[in-house]
Design brief:
The complex is a heterodimer. Chain A is α+β, with helices and mostly antiparallel strands. Chain A has helices spanning 5-13, 16-22, 40-50, 60-65, 95-105, 187-192, 218-225, 375-384, 395-400, 410-425, 490-509, and strands at residues 32-33, 110-120, 130-139, 143-144, 149-161, 166-177, 230-234, 240-241, 256-260, 264-273, 287-292, 297-302, 315-324, 338-345, 365-372, 430-438, 447-458, 463-472, 475-485. Chain B has helices at 28-43, 63-70, 88-100, 134-137, 150-165, 169-183, 198-203, 231-235, 270-283, 303-309, 318-323, 340-343, 350-361; strands at residues 10-17, 52-56, 77-81, 106-114, 206-209, 211-212, 221-230, 242-250, 290-294, 375-379, 386-393. The chains are: A alpha+beta, B alpha/beta. Strand 10 (264-273) of chain A pairs antiparallel with strand 5 (206-209) of chain B. Bound molecules: zinc ion.
Amino acid sequence: MSEPEASTAMRNADDPFLARLQEAVGRPGPVNVARDPVNQPMIRHWADIIDDANPCYVDPDAAALSVHGGIVAPPTMLDVWDKAGVQMRRDGASPVGAVIDVLDAAGFTSTLATNSDLEMTRYLRPGEVLESVARLESVSPEKHTAIGRGHFVTWRTDYATVEGEHVGSVLFRMLKFAPGTGRVDGPSAAGAHGAGAAPPPDPDPSRRPRPAINADNQFFWDGARAHELRIQECNACGALHFPPSPRCRDCGSFSMGFRVASGRGTLYAWAVPHHPQVNGFRYPVLTGLVELEEGTRLVANLVAMAREHIRIGMPLELCWLDSHPALEPGAIDSRGPITLPQFRPVRPARCESTRSVTELEVGDELALCPIPVSATLIVGGALMTRDYFDVHHDRDLAQRRGSRDIFMNIHTSLGLSQRYLSDCLGPETVFRDIRVRLGVPNHPGDTMTMSGAITALDRATGEISVSFRGTNETGDHVTGTAALVLPGGSEHDAIRAASAAAHAEREARS
Amino acid sequence: MTAHAYAGRTAIAGIGATEFTKFSGRSELQLALEACVAALDDAGLEPKRVSGLTTFTMESNPENEVMRGLGITELTHFSRVHHGGGAPAGIVQLAAMAVNEGVSDYVLCYRAFNERSGRRFGSGVQDQPAGASAEQAQFSWTSPYGLLTPASWIAMFASRMMHEHGVTSEDFGRVAVTCRAHAATNPKAHFYNRPITLDDHQSSRFICEPLRLLDCCQESDGGQAILVTSLERARDLRQPPGVIAAAAQGMGDDQQMMRSWFRESLMGLPEMAVCARQLWETSGLGPNDIATAVLYDHFSPFVLPQLEEFGFCAPGEAKDFIRSGEIALDGRLPVNTHGGQLGEAYIHGMNGIAEAVRQVRGTAVNQVAGADSGHVLVTGGTGVPTSALILSNDR
Ligand SMILES: [Zn+2]
């Protein structure tokens, strides 16, 4: 996209295929009028699946008192309203559609969305009907990417109401690639281990050292098998002990039982082994000393987070890893099945009262937020954003296209990013833009952990910039930035006044 | 607390070591015998006069083979101390007690291994044998999660130290830089002539965050032996005696093996505090009487709480003590003048006792002024059940 015009022209001269692809660059397509107005049922379904409890989208009373003066659509739904239905009829006159047809015919049949930059002039209200015009921005020369050979296709869609008021735009980029032409290894595996290096250890957790289970700690490992975290408790005096002992050091009793822990705790200390590397682990290994709310501590792996997310004092919650199958049927000692406690960040409480720009600083970090990725979220998210590509809902077809399972579509990633930011900063956070880039896919069973920080801030206007990322076990799924407006500066008040004026005008009209 | 009976009445009369290498090319038993012979030569004592042997439970060379190899025909005392690197001053204390009780006249304390070319401790415990003794069960709380090496266990303390006491990776680095500076002028040190800078430390790779490669001691092949006898007999031998002014072992409340993470606080080293209290109370000495110290440095972070537990600085202030250069040769308390285990060699702390002997004799390569007329502190392994002693010149 940033290549000098001259070199593009030179290459095109001896690449007729590329020249054909780039023929329509810069040409706008026909006007596309949304089939339905912005409407509450679709908003509600979207908010349900994204698990976004922001009342501005669904609660008329709360929304009326908000900066928006009434119900608004989630801003990342901007490019959902004009989407074609499941039949995906494409207008032949569209330059974007034409390029995609050419690429499909040339064998670049697979599609992967990579970027989406949304700019919102204002929020949309139920009843408004949108029309859009897409303009092909660029088609790249053939690139050899990790998932295959293909061309990046970029287009910009401008949105307006049918009355002609510009409300926003989306710059969208996708890779059209030939299935089966990718590298065998994912990009992370290729990067971490160069030629000649020892192969990485097998991360299969069943290869980890097994715990030595004896009469003194049997209760703990039995509990783990039942996904129950047991803390030794003295039957006589109630004292809790870790590690367990046959005798209570407080009262001397040999009668020892246990209490089931709530699973909530905080990080007390941490260590991240890099070397030596042994089978059973993915390096670097995140380990933490977790202080349970009952008062005892234990060691466990820290999951659903990256090294840079580790903070002493961070709230954590229990989850489980069924790490080892039984070596002998029926065994309950070290040869039995093994389950290990693990701890992940806690989804933070939704911020209900929007943060003022006056209380924030550049560099402030947003709380970590783990998002469990289920098939329901992936399928529901795709359908709620009118994305019917089979890779988002049909596992057989996704696997035939070379994926390990269905994967999340970019609109769901956008929606989750938006929810994350407004849950951190408050329901009346106003989005001016949000730009995302996708990396590794989110598959069912993954946990994507969102993190972010404030990168710029204007106290006078209340405008802030944030960067954020959503990371799963294999790397960054989504990285992005957003421009937001918070209370405490002039812009939020201006948006409130404009919303009130728009409502008054609508009232007057009706 | 009154003085231990052996204190001031027993002494180290000889020290001997093999060369310290990464590949000895010979058996661990040969290393043990060479070290013992060297200690006896240093003292000018016939091997057959030795009637006691003390060592570590981790030692692979049994007393009977060492005895046979040395040509000793009768042993009246042989005993061992458990818990790895925590043992060195402990086995000297055992020897001193045996001597003072009249059980043995001359006791050799020895430790020898091919820790680099043979089984490396740094490779971790993933090959722990199956079984579920109370000792093996301790690993259940850490090994399945990937905390398999001593470095990984110390790292857990280090992260908390950084959080609670404001210690930085650079502070750990300053310990390593100091030890390597001392090793650079010690021809016997593996890192002779090879000092490092703080930048070298900061750019060394992570072994287990927050620990870097240069926070970790070496892995070495070698042997070290120490000859203990009564002060009276030592005076008749070839070298000036290193008088055992005090010695102590220590375990603290809720003690674990390098993984005492379930105590109220992870700051400090309660087991070392038990040693410090005994040393000061039984000897009548205090931090101001110590000319130089050999502080166990398998990993740089635990040098800090040792300075605090012995009262060289206040709790939480070791980083400031180190930042202002007090552990360097021209500082208030020169530490690890031989280069420590970070710089000279990792012989489970036994080479540190030999260095203390050289300091009180006045023969160290980095001799500290006043040490040969004063007192030298040596500590054993940190984070484990441990030991410490004070040596004094015989004047
Ligand atoms: Zn009790």
